[in-house]
Amino acid sequence: MKELKADEIDINLSNIEMPESTKNVKLKANFVYQSRAYEALKDAMKLDNKNYNIFITGSAGSGRHTFVREFLSQIVSQMSTPSDWAYVYNFSNPFSPKALSFSPGKAKKFKESILGLKKEVLESLKRAFESNDYTKRRGELEEKYGAKRKDLWDSLNKKSSELGFAVQIGPTGIMTVPILNGKLLSQEEFDVLTMDQKKFYEGNLIKLKRLIDGTLHKSRVVDIEFKEKLDKLDKEIAKFAIDPIFDDIVVQFKKSADVVEFIKSVKNDLLDNLEILRNDQTDKEKFMSRYDVNVVIDNSTTTGAPIVEELNPTYANLFGKVEYYATMGTLQTDFKFIRPGAFHRANGGFMILNAEDLFRSELSWEALKRLLNSGTLKIENIQEYLGYGITATLNPQPIPADVKIIMIGEPWVYELLYSYDSDFRKFFKIKAPFDWELDLESQGIEYYLQLLRSAIDKKDLLH
Hints:
Elements: H1 35-46, E1 54-57, H2 64-73, E2 84-88, E3 98-102, H3 106-129, H4 132-162, E4 165-170, E5 173-180, E6 183-184, H5 187-191, H6 195-252, H7 257-272, H8 274-278, H9 284-288, E7 294-297, E8 307-309, H10 315-319, E9 321-322, E10 325-327, E11 330-332, E12 338-339, H11 342-346, E13 350-354, H12 355-358, H13 362-374, E14 376-377, H14 382-386, E15 399-400, E16 404-409, H15 411-420, H16 422-427, E17 430-433, H17 442-459
Parallel strand pairs: 1-16, 1-17, 8-13, 13-16
Antiparallel strand pairs: 2-3, 2-7, 4-5, 5-6, 9-12, 10-11, 14-15
Helix pairs in contact: 3-6, 4-6, 6-7
């Protein structure tokens, strides 16, 4: 191979019409010059299989990335816009947040609806528990069970008097004091009683203690019954107040059984925690933050399938992470701190990756293979992925993965991976070779000018 100097190279373009400026180059849709790569991509689009991902080989600067983006831009508008996804609180297992699916654009609306619902619920509950109806019915319950308690203690006092004792309730509990001729006896007065009188009191004291134990038991039963009746009344009043609010949001999202189930869980949790919501000393906003919605995939502004090109394919950038916040010297987290990765944004569409960049992070490649093997997007931090997490963390429910990967790299990278990594051969079955030479003819020159114009427009350069 001989190295040529610049003055030894003679390119004759006299027979080819050249524009005066790249400004005069008109970009054409579906302009094809890299026919082998084009046909390989076309074939790959027909195969709906996780193993038929694409590796485009070619030299850097030959227009591989531009070619792929332009090819995909012609087809994604004809594809379905993928679902939105959000994480919410899992009432049965808070450490495993639930993943909810929505039609495109609906997750954001659901988040807004829940924020409005929280405000409405607090206002409606406040009105309900300040109403005359509730005040009247609660007063009737208090009067009824107050009378039951009074009857119990009146009966105890009467029987204790017959046994020669007075029953007193003090700060340390129930006390029994002997009575003689209607007068409470002091310890000194009791000590000077006759032996028969002392035996009388001592015998009756055993009977009285049994009566006191029985009365205390009956009193606890009355208290429990009162609390049950009061809780039932509170739930009845609260349910009547908030049912219309929840019914409205259920109607909006009735097509998703999982979303409706979550809405019902929120309502049941509210009804189970009325004491917290009615206590003026509690931070209601903090408590109700468990009902918030963390949207991790939002396709409200997406038309067709997404195209994502991750230029810094670290593990966290690709697959997401769980963030933490410090409180009282410890690290804590919850579902609101789940952060998505590039694969979440690309779900339902296409992910473009540079092979050399990807393989600089061994974890990224291993996690990508796990994604393709499992068919799911699972968010976990590197520490947990490697098995040495030292902080309690979350285990979010995985999201179904549906993404076609287009990897771009030098030919030697492809050959190396194909020869030594069986998983690569399994998942990247389609090779799209990119020609690094152009024939010196009008179509080849036009293709090169198309690349120049596309790059200039993308980077906002001067013509």
